[in-house]
Amino acid sequence: MLVSVIVPVLADTPALERLSAQIPPDPRLELIVVDGAADARLDDLARTRGDLRALRSLPGRAIQMNAGARAARGRWLLFLHADSTMPDGWLEAWERSSGRVIGGWFQFALDHRAWQARVIEWGVRWRVRLLRLPYGDQGLFVRRDVFEAMGGFREMPLMEDVDFVRRLGTRTGDLVELPLVLATSARRWERDGWWRRSLRNVVLVTLYFAGVSPARLARWYGADTAD
Fold first, then answer.
1. How far apart are alpha carbons 29 and 23 in whole angstroms?
2. Low-confidence residues of the chain: pLDDT under 50
3. Are the C-beta atoms of residues 82 and 70 closer than 8 Å to each other?
4. Residue 136: inside a domain, yes or no?
């Protein structure tokens, strides 16, 4: 098996249903969903798809992703947010990547036509280009042996993706950005305000790099970490 797709969810089965429809059964992959909220609708979805493995764990994105990784059988691990939209041909593009690659991510986009979304995408492109710092909504993937050697995600209440990418960048091997767009839902930007949410994200990351603890940041963040 080539890829284990791991999706942490927290009371977000409708988004998961849309995502799972974009990942049809394929012998090259497995789909693992880790629920942190004991949502009974996930059991219904699992019954309709024999290849979907539904697990349960304590809530917390890092905790849930680590639980999924422990159960995974693939050579590669792909961690997705439930509200992602997969690009066509992603698995074939993955198979074409080879050599010393140990991990990477997709290009970022928001599933909204507003001009504000394009500005945010532009900012993300420059953040990744200059800092090599993608976030979890870009679909982080890593070779399983490398993930295990790193000890997986640190089980932090926030910034687990930032911490993981920074540690991954210190490993021997190349990181790649696949030339495919992984769209993520703009619902949180619409809910919180385009600039308010983006500014909050920048402030939180800046404070994290300045040494503020993830626990304190999570209290300020005030949102579900597996949203």
1. 9
2. 223-227
3. no
4. yes
The token pair at 50 is 């024999």
Helix (H, G, I), strand (E, B) or coil at 96: helix
SS3 128: helix
- Give the whole-number percent of the chain exceeding pLDDT 70: 96
Could you tell me the end-to-end alpha-carbon distance of the chain, in angstroms, rounded to an integer?
28
Q: Where does the chain show beta strands of DSSP type E?
A: 3-9, 29-35, 52-56, 76-79, 84-85, 101-110, 140-143, 174-184
CB pairs under 8 A, 24+ apart, for 224-227? 224/10, 224/11, 224/59, 225/10, 225/59, 225/60, 225/61, 225/62, 225/157, 225/158, 226/8, 226/9, 226/10, 226/12, 226/36, 226/59, 226/60, 226/61, 226/64, 227/10, 227/12, 227/188
Asked whether residue 16 is domain-assigned, the answer is: yes
User: Does 227 reside within a domain?
Assistant: no
pLDDT digits (tens, 9 = 90+) for 74-116: 999 999 999 999 999 999 888 887 667 999 999 999 999 999 9
46: its two tokens:
């699992």
Domain that holds residue 118: 3-221
- Cβ 110 vs Cβ 120: under 8 Å: yes
Report the predicted TM-score, pTM, of the whole model to 2 decimal places: 0.94
CATH number at residue 49: 3.90.550.10
Residue 226: inside a domain: no
Tally of domains in the chain: 1
